[in-house]
Design goal:
The structure holds two protein chains of two kinds.
Chain A: E1 3-14, E2 17-28, E3 32-36, H1 43-50, E4 58-63, E5 76-79, H2 91-101, H3 106-119, H4 135-147, E6 153-157, H5 165-180, E7 184-189, H6 192-198, E8 201-206, E9 209-215, H7 216-220, E10 223-232, H8 239-244, E11 249-254, E12 259-263, H9 269-279, E13 282-289, H10 292-300, H11 308-314, H12 316-319
Parallel strand pairs in A: 3-7, 3-8, 5-6, 6-7
Antiparallel strand pairs in A: 1-2, 1-4, 8-9, 10-12, 10-13, 11-12
Chain B: H1 4-19, H2 22-49, E1 54-61, H3 67-73, H4 76-91, H5 98-108, E2 114-120, H6 130-133, E3 142-149, E4 166-168, H7 175-196, H8 201-208, E5 216-218, E6 224-226, H9 229-263, H10 266-271, H11 276-308, H12 317-344, H13 348-374, H14 379-384, H15 391-399, H16 407-435, H17 445-454
Parallel strand pairs in B: 1-2, 1-3
Antiparallel strand pairs in B: 3-4, 5-6
Helix pairs in contact in B: 1-11, 2-5, 2-11, 3-7, 4-5, 9-11, 9-12, 9-13, 9-15, 11-12, 12-13, 12-15, 12-16, 13-15, 15-16, 16-17
The chains are: A alpha/beta, B alpha/beta.
Chain lengths: 324, 455
C-alpha cells in the first residue's frame, strides 16, 4: 500500500532545544494513525513539519506523493492545536473562505459546509459571527473548515481537547465517516482511549524521538501479567476480602463493579483467575491489558537519567481520561 | 510556486473586510466631508457668532495733530476699505481663484467693530485712566482702549528716530478689534508724519496703492494660464500628505491585521491552506487596493476642487501618474516592513519599539517634502531623490514644485524605489514565514535579521 505520508530521518531544533530527533514515520493510505506522547514530546512540531508550516533541519518529508505539503495543500485537511478563527467573520463566510483557499467552488462549499455543520449539531450558526459562538462550537466549526474540501489526508492535532462528551461523540462520528470514505488520518492525542477507539496504528514519541510504532491490534494483545481484572456477577460486601485471600494475590484495589488483583512476583495469572472464580462468582475475569503509561515507562525508563516517578508525572496528562 | 488564485482570495478578503469596516467608511467618506464643512461652514459660523463690538477709544495725543487722522481711519468705510485691501493682498497669488477666495475669506471674517474716538487732554496718563479702562459695568459688547501717542512719534528732531505709540487695553478686547485699531493708528501716524513734513498723505497713498493683479505662468507650449505661486508652494506639501496618508494607512492596517491573525491563532489555519508567501502577497495587495481606493477618492476630490476654481490646467496630469507610481513603491517598502513587524510580535503594544524607527523614516521625508519642494534643485533635494526610502517623497515634492526635475532623474528615482521595494518584500517574506508562528518575548531588529538569515 502506498504511503500517504512519510518522514525519514527528520530533525528539527529551536536554538539549543532539539524538538524532533531523527524521526521516521510512515502512514499508509487509508490508515488512521494516532500520534501520542506527553506535552513537549514534539507532536505538534512533527505535524507542522508535515504541513510545511515548519521546515526540518535535516531529513525528508513526503506527503501524498509530493515532496512537500505545499504541493498538496488542497488535498490535506489540518486542524491545528491552537484553534483560531476570524472573530468578526460570519461562520458561513469563514468556511467559504477556507474552502475557497482549498480550491472548492462557492456553490459546492456552501452545501458541504451546511451538511457538516448539521452533522456536528450546528444547524443554525451559518449566519452568526464567530465571536458569538462558544469555544466548543468554534472548535466544531474549525473542524468543518478542515474537512469541507473532502481531503485525502486529515491531520488533527488534539481534536478532542476542550470538547464536552456530546461534541466528542459527534466529532468521532464524523471522523469515522471520513475514515470510511478512505481518508488517511493522523491525529495527535493525550487520551489513549480515544486512540484505541479510532486508530489502526499508534506512534508514540518522547523528546522528539519515536519510541513506539505498532498496529493497534498488536497493542491490544499486550497484557500486564501482574494484574487480573475481576468483575463479580452479584457484587457482595465480602467480595474484596474473599478475593484478597486468593493465593498469589498481593493486594486488591477497585470497587464493587470491578476489582484489580495485584499479583505477587512470579504468581501465575491463570491459577489466580481460576481460584478467584472459585471464591467469588465472576461476570468477567481477565488478565489486564498493558496500560499505555506502563508501556511508555517500560520503553523510556532510564533514558536521559529520568526516574520512573518523573516519567509517570510527565505522563499525567497522557493517562487522563484513559478507560482503565 | 505561488498560486495567483490563493493570493487573490487572501487579497479579496482583506480588501472587503477593510472597505466594509466603519473605520474605513468614516476615513474615506466622512473625512473629506468634514474637511469641506470645516473649510466652508465653520468660518461663517464663527463670523456670524460674533456680534459687533462697540469700542470706545481714548486718545492721548502729545502732538495735537493725530486726532483728525485717526478719526478718519476709524470711520467704518475706511476700515472696510483697509480690510478689503489686506484680504486682496493675501489672496493675490491664488490667481484665477483669487477673487473667489478673497470673497470667501472676507465672508469668514468677524463683524467689523465700531470705534468711537474721544480725545483726552495731552497731560492725561494711562495710570489716571486705568479705572475707566477696566470699568466692569460695561455692556456685553462694549470695550475700551487707550492710545497714547507722544509728540516724538509724529515730529522728528534731527536724526533721532520717530518714537512709537502705546495701546492700552483690558484683557477682553477681541483680537480683531485690537489688530484693526493698531492698523488704524499706524495709518493715522503715517499720515500725520507726512503732513508734518509738508507732504500730502493722499498723494502718497495714491502713489503706493496698486490694483491687485495675477501672475501669468508661461509654459513651453505657449499656453498661458492665470495662476500663481501659492499652488506651486502647496502642491509638494499636498503630494507628501497624500503619500504619507496612504502609506501610513495601508501599513498600519497591514500590521494590525497580521497581529490580529497571529494573536487569534487563525494564522495556523490559514497556513494549512496557503503558503506564507501567498499570504504575505495577498495581504499586501489587499491593503494596496484599500489605500488605492482612499487615494483615488482624495485625488478625485482634489481634481474636482481644482476644476471648481479653474486651476486644473496648472497641474501636469503626469503628476497624478507619478504620484501613484511613487506611492506604490513607498507602500511596498513601508508596507512590507510594517507587515514584518506585525508577523514578529504577538500584540499591538509589542509593536511600538519595532514600528518606531519605521514611522520616523516615514515622517521625516513627509516633513521634508515642502522644504524640498521649495528648493527643488538644491543638492540636498537632488541627493534625497535617489536615496530610498525617502526618495519617493523627495521626488514627488520636486515633481510638484515649480522646477520639476529632468525625466532621467525621475526614472532613476523610480528604479531606486523598485530596488528598495524588492529588498523590503524579500526581507518581509523571510521574516514573515518564521515570525508568524513565533510566540513569547517580542523580538528586536537583530532577531528579525537573524530570522531572515535562518529562513
Amino acid at each position: 500500500m502506498d504511503a500517504a505520508l512519510a518522514l525519514r530521518g527528520v530533525d528539527k531544533s529551536f536554538g539549543a532545544q532539539r524538538a524532533v530527533a531523527g524521526l521516521d514515520l510512515v502512514v499508509p493510505q487509508g490508515e488512521t494513525c494516532g500520534l501520542i506522547g506527553p506535552s513537549g514530546a514534539g507532536k505538534s512540531t512533527t505535524i507542522r513539519i508535515l504541513m510545511s508550516i515548519l521546515f526540518p533541519d535535516a531529513g525528508a518529508v513526503e506527503v501524498l506523493n509530493q515532496r512537500s505539503a505545499l504541493e498538496a495543500k488542497d488535498r490535506i485537511g489540518y486542524l491545528p492545536e491552537e484553534r483560531g478563527v476570524y472573530r468578526k467573520m460570519r461562520v458561513g463566510a469563514f468556511l467559504d473562505y477556507l474552502a475557497g483557499l482549498k480550491g472548492v467552488p462557492p456553490q459546492q462549499s456552501q452545501a458541504r459546509a451546511r451538511d457538516l455543520l448539521s452533522r456536528l449539531g450546528l444547524q443554525d450558526v451559518e449566519k452568526k459571527k464567530c465571536e458569538d459562538l462558544s469555544k466548543g462550537m468554534l472548535q466544531r466549526v474549525q473542524f468543518v473548515g478542515c474537512i469541507v474540501h473532502q481531503p485525502e489526508l486529515l491531520i488533527l492535532d488534539e481534536p478532542f481537547s476542550g470538547l464536552d462528551p456530546v461534541s466528542v461523540r459527534l466529532l468521532k462520528d464524523v471522523i469515522a465517516a471520513e475514515r470510511r470514505r478512505g481518508t488517511t488520518i493522523l491525529f495527535s492525542t493525550h487520551v489513549m482511549a480515544q486512540a484505541e477507539e479510532l486508530c489502526d496504528r499508534i506512534v508514540m514519541i518522547h523528546k522528539g524521538r519515536k519510541v513506539l510504532d505498532e498496529p493497534m491490534a498488536k497493542l491490544r494483545r499486550q497484557y500486564d501479567t501482574s494484574r487480573v481484572l475481576f468483575e463479580p456477577l452479584a457484587p457482595q460486601s465480602g467480595d474484596a476480602e474473599a478475593l484478597r485471600g486468593t493465593a498469589g494475590v498481593a493486594r486488591v484495589s477497585g470497587n464493587d463493579s470491578e476489582y484489580a488483583l495485584h499479583l505477587e512476583p512470579g504468581a501465575d495469572p491463570v491459577n489466580v483467575m481460576r481460584e478467584a472464580a472459585g471464591r467469588v462468582a465472576p461476570a468477567r475475569v481477565e488478565v489486564a491489558r498493558l496500560r499505555l503509561e506502563d508501556m511508555f515507562v517500560g520503553i523510556v525508563k532510564g533514558d536521559a537519567g529520568e526516574s520512573e516517578e518523573a516519567l509517570r508525572q510527565h505522563l499525567q496528562g497522557l493517562t487522563a481520561g484513559e478507560g482503565r | 510556486m505561488i498560486s495567483v488564485k490563493r493570493v487573490g482570495l487572501v487579497a479579496r478578503r482583506d480588501f472587503l473586510v477593510t472597505v466594509s469596516s466603519k473605520g474605513f467608511l468614516f476615513g474615506v467618506l466622512m473625512m473629506p466631508l468634514i474637511l469641506v464643512v470645516l473649510i466652508t461652514l465653520v468660518p461663517k459660523l464663527l463670523a456670524s457668532a460674533g456680534a459687533q463690538m462697540d469700542v470706545q477709544v481714548a486718545l492721548i495725543d502729545g502732538s495735537g495733530t493725530l486726532a483728525d487722522a485717526l478719526h478718519a481711519e476709524l470711520d467704518p468705510a475706511a476700515l472696510a476699505a483697509a480690510r478689503g485691501a489686506q484680504t486682496r493682498a493675501s489672496t493675490e497669488q491664488l490667481g484665477a481663484a483669487g477673487q473667489q477666495v478673497a470673497g470667501a475669506a472676507a465672508a469668514a471674517l468677524p463683524a467689523m467693530p465700531r470705534f468711537q474716538l474721544q480725545v483726552l487732554p495731552p497731560d492725561a496718563t494711562e495710570a489716571g485712566e486705568k479705572s475707566w479702562l477696566t470699568d466692569e459695568h460695561l455692556g456685553k459688547y462694549q470695550r475700551r482702549a487707550l492710545v497714547e501717542v507722544p509728540a516724538a512719534a509724529v515730529e522728528r528732531h534731527g536724526d533721532v528716530p520717530f518714537a512709537t505709540y502705546q495701546l492700552y487695553a483690558p484683557r477682553n478686547l477681541p483680537q480683531d478689534a485690537e489688530s484693526t485699531l493698531h492698523g488704524a493708528v499706524r495709518r493715522a501716524l503715517i499720515a500725520a508724519r507726512l503732513r508734518a513734513t509738508g507732504v500730502d498723505p493722499a498723494i502718497v497713498r495714491s502713489a503706493t496703492e496698486i490694483a491687485p493683479t495675477q501672475t501669468t505662468l508661461v509654459s513651453a507650449g505657449g499656453a498661458n494660464h492665470g495662476g500663481g505661486q501659492v499652488l506651486n508652494r502647496l502642491l509638494p506639501f499636498i503630494m507628501g500628505f497624500l503619500m504619507f496618508m496612504g502609506v501610513m494607512m495601508g501599513g498600519q492596517a497591514l500590521m494590525m491585521s497580521t497581529v490580529e491573525e497571529k494573536s487569534s491563532r487563525v494564522v495556523e489555519v490559514l497556513l494549512a491552506a496557503v503558503a506564507p508567501l501567498e499570504m504575505m502577497w495577498g495581504k499586501l495587495l489587499g491593503q494596496l487596493g484599500v489605500t488605492m481606493v482612499s487615494m483615488g477618492v482624495y485625488v478625485a476630490l482634489g481634481v474636482l476642487a481644482l476644476l471648481q476654481f479653474a486651476m486644473f490646467g496648472l497641474i501636469d496630469p503626469l503628476l497624478i501618474l507619478y504620484l501613484f507610481l511613487f506611492f506604490l513603491m513607498s507602500y511596498l517598502v513601508y508596507g512590507a516592513l510594517m507587515l514584518t513587524v506585525g508577523a514578529a510580535v504577538n500584540q499591538i503594544a509589542d509593536a511600538q519599539s519595532l514600528n518606531g524607527p519605521i514611522i520616523i523614516l516615514l515622517v521625516l521625508p513627509y516633513i521634508l517634502s515642502p522644504i524640498i519642494g521649495g528648493q527643488p534643485d538644491a543638492p540636498f533635494a537632488v541627493i534625497a531623490s535617489f536615496v530610498p526610502p525617502v526618495n519617493a517623497f523627495a521626488m514627488m515634492a520636486r515633481l510638484a514644485s515649480s522646477s520639476p526635475p529632468p525625466v532621467w532623474q525621475v526614472l532613476l528615482s523610480l528604479a531606486a524605489s523598485l530596488v528598495a521595494a524588492c529588498a523590503a518584500v524579500w526581507f518581509a517574506a523571510k521574516v514573515f514565514r518564521i515570525g508568524l508562528l513565533m510566540h513569547g518575548k517580542p523580538p528586536g531588529f537583530g532577531t528579525l535579521v537573524r530570522w531572515a538569515r535562518m529562513s
